[in-house]
Amino acid sequence: MMLRCMFFRFFLVLVASIYLSISWASSEVREQEYAEEIETSYSGGEIIWLQAKGRKFLTLYTETEKVSSLGTAIILHPMDGHPDQKEIINPLRLFLPEHNWATLSIQLPVLGVSAKQLEYYPLFDDANARILAAIDHLKKGKVENIVLIGYGLGGMMASYFLNEQGVVKDLEKADVKAIVSISLAVPDSERKQAQVLDFIKLIKQPFLDIFAENDLPEVTDSARKRRLAAKEKKAYRQFQVAGEGHLYQHDEGLVVKRIYSWMSRGRKPE
Q: How far is CA 84 from the centre of its chain?
């Protein structure tokens, strides 16, 4: 019986290792496909390759049109997305620089097309490493005001990052000065990466929570829970975009305008 149990445990470990290897390989393949697509089709900005955990990843940096700037927004795409995707990400990275905010849109880890959100949770720490690499790159350029903007899963990763890095404990020393989430979901999961409500309670940075009237159920159904989680946060704002769905196809410009207006309040050019 003991031998059988040991064999079963070995089998589970072997299956898990194979699964993770396949998922990781899938991530590399998808990222390479996105990189090739972006390199041949993107308009505006500059491709900058950064490195985290021994792997290079693509980012798109777009400067402001003025000599002075209010800071830089690090943009985090949704699940299975990329730094120049048409929905929300491209408009943000190109329009914010017109309003005195530079942008650095980064490639986050991605899996296969059929991967579920639950399968992405083990990649959150890899996403953390990439966000840190992006912050370090900006700090070398003397950027003081850094804002995280995350769409969908990118918003979850942004809130997880702040919680894991402990910057929520000391706002004065934090490298990230504010966070914007677009269509932030509260998953029904016990996994630590999915504890969005706890993250909201702990994060001290100014927090803008944007979602669409006809967004995904896990976004709209949890809107009140997110407000309650932030009830003691003076710097938390929630905004519902009327008549829109998760892709914000009718007036994505309104989303961008709301974001740069909120980000720019009380900030001075660097």
A: 13
